[in-house]
């Protein structure tokens, strides 16, 4: 799909250490990478600089939610990549099957629509969204009134290790 559309850009929500971000940026695409865990963002930033990809990657240090607030980041004791937003997270803790423990600290949340107010969004008129935020996807899109317009979003990709969320009029990669 990316080869078929030279104007296609990527929004990577839950970027982690940047597997998708770095791959797409290396292919010459603009990438908006949103990551809640500061240590992951540090690693991603170093990789962007080392790879000379700073003209293609925009990094955001926030979690995505349905409101602007301060949240805890829960810890998956078996998987650092399984960090999750710990708000009313009993459903996430159930998904984690007892692996949730401790916290990585706090982070501010933004909404999907808040992303549209960023100046870099001028480069993101035709996008694929990759969203892997450990069971919080439903809450992230709950109040996205402007950000998920079907004419801009070509594909939406969810994580593989938890149930897909519902997204009308969108194909999953």
UniProtKB/TrEMBL annotation:
Annotated coiled-coil segments of the chain: none
Matching SUPFAM superfamilies: S-adenosyl-L-methionine-dependent methyltransferases
Pfam families in alphabetical order: Methyltransf_21
Methyltransferase FkbM domain residues: 12-143
PANTHER family reported for this sequence: METHYLTRANSFERASE, FKBM FAMILY PROTEIN, SLL1173 PROTEIN
Protein name in UniProt: Methyltransferase FkbM domain-containing protein
Biological source species: Magallana gigas (Pacific oyster)
